[in-house]
Amino acid sequence: MVKRKRKSESLETSADSNAELQRLSKNVYGYDKVESELEQQNETAEDLLNEVEDYAIIKLDVKGAIRSWNKGAENIKGYNAKEIIGRNYRIFYTQEDKAAKLSETLLEEARLKGRTNYEGWRVRKDGTRFWGSMTLTALHDKNGNVKGYLKVTRDLTARKTAEDKYSNFVEELRIKNRELKKSEERYHKMVSEVRDYAIILLDNDGRILDWNKGAESLKGYTSNEIVGKNFRLFYPKEEKDNGLPGQLLSEAAKQGSVVHEGWRIKKDGTRFWGNVVITALHDEDNNIIGFSKVTRDLTEKKVAEDKLSNLLEELRQANEELKFSEERHHKMIGEVLDYAIILLDPSGNIQNWNSGVQFIKGYKPGEIIGKNFSVFYTKADQKNGLPRQLLSEAESKGKVSHEGWRVRKDGTQFWGSVVITALHGDDNSIIGFSKVTRDLTDKKKAEDLLKRNAAQLELKTKALERVNGELLAFTYVASHDLKEPLRKIKTFASRIKDVGYSPVRSEEFMEKIIGSANKMQSLIENLLAFSQVSNDESTFETVNLNEVLDSVKNDLELLISEKQAVIKCDKLPVITGVNFQMHQLFLNLISNAIKFAREGEPPYIEIKAQTLKGPEVPTLESDAQSNNYYFITVSDRGIGFPQEHADKIFEAFHRLNKKGPIAGSGIGLAIVKRIVENHNGIISAEGAPGEGAVFNMYFPLDNNH
Fold first, then answer.
1. Distances 646 to 642, 649, 687 between C-alpha atoms, Å
2. DSSP string, 240-251
3. Fold for domain 198-336?
4. Which residues touch 684 (CB under 8 Å, ≥6 apart)?
5. pLDDT value, residue 1
6. Are the CB atoms for 335 and 314 separated by under 8 Å?
7. Considering the domain 536-700, what is its CATH architecture?
8. 20 to 30 A Cα–Cα from 77, which one of 108, 342, 395, 465?
9. Which residue has the higher pLDDT, 456 or 399?
10. pTM of this prediction?
11. CB–CB of 392/402 below 8 Å?
């Protein structure tokens, strides 16, 4: 730009002035020509930039407003030139970047430094994001002032995605490695902290590779003292001479495992009786890679007869550091069949599963790993929180032992002996539990059989005691109750002779003789009825109690009519029992209710029936509470009885009204109780003087005689 000087005076029309004007005119003309050429070059460069499709090349003014837009910008960002020119370039930034005023910061940085670079997420017209690499360059005028910016952006989303995938892949590998390391640590802890069993890992030649706390406690050696030596060290001299250790390894290699019991030697030379299971460990090609040896001290069951000490044969072998392979630990636990060995996390979820567990409980690893070990417990134990209690006790005490019924996959139950041991990390925190289970069902069945035999013997003893009691009662009846009517008959018969066979007096004595005979006949009949129900071995059949009651009312028809008795009855059930005995039961209860009615009132008898669940039945033993029961009550409004005699009234020959106007034989309710017991039922009585009596009877629905 040419600045023209302004003069205060008028231009002189001298030749010098004209010449100067002509020179200036030529200079101006030359500048305009250069400027025109530059403009043409700029237009050509701008046309070239507009055609670039891989880069978004945009011109911005000093405030960031868009002034130009090429095809690359349209391809990458989705806007055409008409839609975007004039708008601020912050539109391409995310809400987070807008809030942080990133676009203004970048403009300022480019202004100060001349240029700035940045990578980050950008937003297209359709709202999707892409990873953009941006270079922002400041544009200056001739005086060095910023007149705008050139913004070049490239879409690197594919590269960013690949980098993220690679980063995620690396992170997954790191997590898996950490999990594998943690798993291996748990295996080490599980084996090392079990104290009730000596668990040892051997190589193919019987050299000791691993040694747990149970082995140290049982045998006396520390890991440093024993690892690398041969397991023959634990055998007495005579067994070593006979080659027993080698024979056991050979048998385990051939058969998969071998079990042996015998005397073993501790470090201090003392002996213990060991139960040993040696299991061959195989690799994926089924080649033997070593052996696991599980030993339990069973000295208490073996009487120590031989306490002669054997000199330990110390075999000097090269101490060799062996790396503990996770595969061997897996195999050592995995191939033991006689014990179910499980690794649990702190919540009781199953982390690892060996062949012994599959053999005992029936689950395959894929079916059970990850589930909680409470699945092996019965519904009752789960409801009572037993699994959680065992873990809590193991956590507080270090370990816990328990025996009880466990559930297999197929729903069958087995009697399991369980030892749960808490596993600790380096900071002594609980990192899980080991659970060792052995199936002792055969032992449990044998013990239960002994208990059942003892219970049956006790029942027979009680039955004999009851029979002895009844014999004593019968003896009493024979010596007293039967003699009394005979004495009266004899006495009144002799008195007929004494009065000279007087018709009037003789008739009076004959009536007394007949009364005594009837009393004796009734007593004999009741004794026969009691004996019959006591020794009746009739087969149970279906008995309709409604028909039985109709038959009883028919037998007592005259007595019911004479006493104007009222009998109200619900619909009674059909039970499994003995028809004759149920007839005797209702006959005695109804005749008693009529006999012991209040004077001047017609007898009122009510019979009700309903069904109850076992827990609703009073005084029922726990092992019978799973049954359902028929509950039948017979109540009356008679003279009643004191409640303190509620149990005694069922005793044979026990009378509450021995000398009153109403006397019984003392056998009727004893017959009723015996019939209820014959039907595996329960009977009880309630009463109060002057208020009547209630007899409660419970008969099992499922009644197997």
1. 7, 6, 7
2. HHTTHHHHHHHH
3. Beta-Lactamase (3.30.450)
4. 618, 619, 646, 695, 696
5. 36
6. no
7. 2-Layer Sandwich (3.30)
8. 108
9. 399
10. 0.34
11. no
